[in-house]
Amino acid sequence: MATVLIPSGNQHFPVQDYDLDATLNSGQVFRWREYGESWCGVIGSRWVRLCANDRSIYAETANPVSDWSWLTRYLQLELNIGSVLATFPVDEPMQAATAACRGLRLLRQDPWECLASFILSSSKQIVQIQQIVSLLCERYGERISVLPGYRPAHAFPSATRLGQLTETDLRGCKMGFRAAYLLETAHALAAGLFDLARLDSLSVDDARAELMRLPGVGRKIADCVLLFAYGFQSAFPVDVWVMRALRQLYFTGRSVSPKRLHRFAAEHFGPNAGYAQQYLFHYMRTGDVQRTKAKARVAKANGA
DNA sequence: TACCAGGAGAGCG
DNA sequence: CGCTCTCATGGT
After folding, report:
1. Nucleotide nearest to A257 (CA to C1')
2. Residue at minimal CA–C1' distance from B9?
3. Cβ within 7 A of any strand B atom
């Protein structure tokens, strides 16, 4: 008797060293909401609810799924995190950061959504970015189905859709001066003047240079997109938090220019510098770095 | 109230 | 190259 594969809307994925909470809450993505023990979000045109424990991630969707590769790719479930951590320098700050953020991962996001989100991120706090992106999707994204009892969900609006709007429409989503940048970038993509898919085939430096041609995209935002959407793991976004982390942990608090920090990052952190950056960012932002330093002071006081 | 936020771009010397 | 200013809005 032939086995029939019946598409189902739920699936278990075994995992190891995967901290879903930290991963979805580490400033690399802005669309996930926590519901008690689970997270709800949208990947492409699919709504999904994720529930994690030490050994597995359980996924539920609103519609039956026969091929889960969209999810395994997004969550990077096939990645052996140990092989990444093994490339990190063995110094005190990285030891502390990787210990404090064990299981923190990088996602593989959709390039357009990632690009648009980070254009909106400039000089904004993470809670505000979430608010802006949420408004944008609710107003202009296509409605998608969710499991009974959950809040309505929307896909991220396409570049074509955003390109049809006015700057006033976008400013209505609280994005301020970023509206013009987002609109112009949407126009460039919608008109076919810029091809995000082509960046895959370029070197990291060429891909970065291409992204930086877009309005509202400088070095930092380009590096975020390279790292979070394309998987260029040497890309090293330097924002205020990472700047502070590097100064404090590697330059005895001295002021160092972003240019020098990029050179230091490439030399010191190696081929997965971007991954190391995410650990430092999260370590800094969660305040764990302060606790580690406090412990060190106590230990030193006791020892002396 | 003042300051800051996962910055970029323009103008200046 | 490096510095400074502005842009819009809300959190702390």
Report:
1. C2
2. A216
3. A 26-28, 118, 121-129, 177, 181, 212, 214-222, 224, 237-242, 277-278, 281
How far does the CA of A180 sit from the C1' of C11, in Å? 24
8 Å CB contact between A227 and A239: no
pLDDT of the residue at A3: 61
Compute the distance between CA of residue A136 and CA of residue A154 in angstroms, rounded to an integer.
Answer: 10
Max Cα-Cα span within chain A: 76
CA distance A138 to A143: 8
Query: Looking at residue A288, what is its pLDDT?
Result: 80
Cβ-contact A163, A187 below 8 angstroms: yes
What ranges in chain A are assigned the alpha helix state H?
20-24, 69-75, 81-85, 92-100, 111-119, 126-140, 159-163, 167-171, 178-190, 204-211, 219-228, 240-250, 258-269, 273-285, 288-303
Under-70 pLDDT residues of chain A: 1-6, 298-304
Q: How far is the CA of A271 from the C1' of B2 (A)?
A: 42
Nearest-nucleotide field for A181 (CA, C1'): B8
Predicted confidence (pLDDT) per residue in A162-171, tens digit: 999 999 999 9
pTM over 0.90: yes
- What's the confidence (pLDDT) of residue A294? 76
pLDDT (0 to 100) of residue A92: 97
